[in-house]
Amino acid sequence: MDRGAALSVDRDTLIAAARTAAGQAYAPYSGFHVGAALGFSDGSLVTGSNVENASYGLTLCAETVAVGKAMSEGRRGALEAVAVIGGKAGAVGVGAPVTPCGRCRQVLTELAQLGGTDPLIWCAGEEEVLELRLSALLPHAFGPANLG
Ligand code: THU
User: Fold this and answer.
1) Among residues 15, 65, 126, 130, which is most buried (max CB within 10 A)?
2) What does the pLDDT look like over 18-68, one tens digit per residue?
3) Is residue 34 lining ligand 1, measured as CB closer than 6 Å?
4) Domain count of the fold of the chain
């Protein structure tokens, strides 16, 4: 990926999509609502929200849901950027930025490596948007490239 190239997705648009997705979170157990938005090089977006389960450990994070939606639509790679936002119901985006959990970092890496990109991850908090490359969140990642 050419890191100097202009992005097809606008940061604030992607964060706004993640915030809207958080509004669909099913989080009756934690009360913590998360939204994620994936931005692709053709300018399209795919969103996800967390989906909890009465068997708590089966909870799906917003980022994982978004990747599952995208890949089940046939998307493979072209992942330019990801926005994540979360918080208690009625207070999404309040407080510190939410960074993707370890499992979600791995799940995002699968989709990203298929297209050879290292997407920007925008973690939106109340006072700052933390911007990191996926490779910084998950250095030396194991992915499909290792099996090719
Ligand atoms: N959660 C996410 O959706 N994404 C993350 O990266 C961190 C955590 C969800 C899982 C659970 O439903 C709630 O936040 C509290 O952990």
Assistant:
1) 65
2) 999 999 999 999 999 999 999 999 999 999 999 999 999 999 999 999 999
3) yes
4) 1
Q: Is 131 a catalytic residue?
A: no
HSE toward the beta carbon, residue 86, CA cutoff 13 A: 23
As beta bridge partners, residue 100 has none
DSSP 87: E
Q: Please check whether residue 148 lies inside any domain of the structure.
A: no
Q: Whose CA is nearest to atom 9 of ligand 1?
A: 61
Q: Is this structure's pTM higher than 0.90?
A: yes
Cα dihedral 65/116/122/14 (nearest 10): -70
Nearest CA, atom 8, ligand 1:
61
Which strands, in side-by-side order, build the sheet including 45-49? 45-49, 32-40, 79-88, 120-124, 129-133
Residue 29 Cα: closest atom of ligand 1: 12
Q: Domain for residue 144, yes or no?
A: no
The finding on whether 64 has its CB within 6 A of some atom of ligand 1 is no
Ligand 1 atom 6: residue of nearest CA: 100
Query: Could you tell me the CATH number of the domain that includes residue 117?
Result: 3.40.140.10
